[in-house]
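Q: Two folds, back to back.
A: First:
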Amino acid sequence: MSTAETLCGSPVILTGITDRRGSAVWKAVGPRGSVAVKSGYGVGAESVLRETTVLNELSGRTVVGGRTGDSVWYVTDWLDGPSTWKVFQPVRDGVDGRTWALTGAVELCRAAAELHELGWRQSDLQPSHGIHRAAGVCLIDFAWSWREGLSAPAHFRGGVTHLDAPEFAARIDDGARHVTPTVAADVYALAGALWTCATVRGRWTTGRPGSPYVVPVWPNCGRRLPQVVSH
């Protein structure tokens, strides 16, 4: 709280955003501005520590981190703007918005491409992880992000299950305890995220009998998304 007060002024009002899988996020608002506060506890402490490292390496990102007891936390700039999911809301509601959505899709792809050019794999691209601003899209949630030279996330088993690349799902089904993030898997997740944003009518089918993983079968086409092969 003291770091948030230093950056935003006092008093600070905290609003909870998410709290799941060992990490919680708040929006802190004060007289001088707003910041995002993220805390990792238990199994989430490692991922928040990793994310702090990633944010420190990415240009244009300001982050202050530390430890309190067994918890790891960081404070960074709050990014105002709608998520990709919200940008596509008018399309899903059938009230137009197609041009805005297409522009948003291109900006999200550019943000992912720029990250890849820097050697990073985001590893968890999903509809809520792109924030649309006047200057373009800012990606968020780098808990599983990775680049060559950085220790691979030891417990990474893909992102959102239905956006996992088929090769990830197959390896985990075969007993792999972790998988290595790839650009190809990021691209697969990006395509799936954009489709999810455009329609909520998709139905899901398991990739293998008894498998906890699902492969999307999109309405009116009757086929699965093509497999992306990593090299």
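A: Second:
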Amino acid sequence: MPRRSFGEFSCSVARAVDVVGDSWTPLILRDVFLGVDQFDDLVRDLGISRALLTTRLGHLTDAGILEAELYQERPARHRYRLTAAGSELVPILVALMLWGDRWRSPEGPPLRLEHECGHLLGARLRCEGCDGEVTAASVSPRPGPGGRLAVGTAVVAERLVRAQAAREQAAHDQPAQDQTTDPERR
């Protein structure tokens, strides 16, 4: 059975997974990020078949995640580089690596990454407004301008609409309640 495409889902996670969600892509991107950027080196490092790597590299270049740079003409050989979109995936790869280090590497991390300041990397997602750490308990979903009731997001969208309506009703009821309980407003 062919893999289902998530590109038409009204969900940014689904659309991202459609591009980078197969098993090989994060490993290919990791290698390119770490400087393993030539086809033969990728085959050797990953143990991936040449045909499958060709397909994955084509998909990633078509999606604008990687770009191929010709470094030898006969035979034609390419070096792969992360594009701006691909470079924005690096923090995600680092977070995934650190999660794997913590939860799937009992013998210890196989690789450590050092920041330009000299310290080892840790991954913490922070709120741009208050600088608070983002955790599962500290985040609440809100409807976005691109959201819609559709396959892959129907239940979430329905719940977000109900929650938004409840918040709006509570905000509407709040001033009326304040007027009746505030002695100065009576």
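Q: And?
A: The radius of gyration is 23 Å.
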